[in-house]
Amino acid sequence: QVQLVESGGGSVQARGSLRLSCAASGNTASTSLMGWFRQAPGKEREEVAHIYTGRIPYYAGSIKGRFTISQDNAKNTVDLQMNSLRPEDTAMYYCAAGSLGKYNYWGRGTQVTVSS
């Protein structure tokens, strides 16, 4: 089992920045894939970014160039640096972990609210 705990959400004005962090614990050796998802009210969950250990990250087109995902294997954390935030980035953000393209573990989420 792997436990994921997100932190760093909050409220910010448009064009501001936030940094989300996800701390993983448990059998982290079983997870080579870490990702961030978001879900806004009334919308489907969307994958924002993911990273496989030692590989180039993936970014969704809507956030490419503004968000950066990074992983610290020594600390078992994966961060999401979010710059140039827009009101449409408002959502609950979730950390997820898994392997071979499948996410098996999810955090409870952290709320990000961007005001115009």
Question: Mind sketching the topology for me?
Answer:
Blueprint: E1 2-7, E2 10-13, E3 18-26, E4 33-39, E5 46-52, E6 58-59, E7 67-72, E8 77-82, E9 91-99, E10 102-106, E11 110-115
Parallel strand pairs: 2-11
Antiparallel strand pairs: 1-3, 3-8, 4-5, 4-9, 5-6, 7-8, 9-10, 9-11
What are its keywords?
116 residues; mainly beta; seven-stranded mixed sheet; 11 strands
* Poorly predicted residue ranges: none
| Rg, Cα atoms, Å | 13 Å
Number of E strands: 11
Count of alpha and pi helical runs:
0
The span between the termini is 40 Å
Structural class: mainly beta
Describe the structure.
This protein has 116 residues and is an all-beta fold. 0% of the residues lie in helices and 58% in strands. It has no helices and 11 strands. The strands form 2 sheets. Strands 2, 4, 5, 6, 9, 10 and 11 form a 7-stranded mixed sheet that branches. Strands 1-3-8-7 form a 4-stranded antiparallel sheet, with no helix packed on it. A hairpin with a 2-residue loop joins strand 9 and strand 10. The relative contact order is 0.33. The model has no long low-confidence stretch (mean pLDDT 96).
Short overview:
By secondary structure, this protein is an all-beta fold. It is built from no helices and 11 strands.
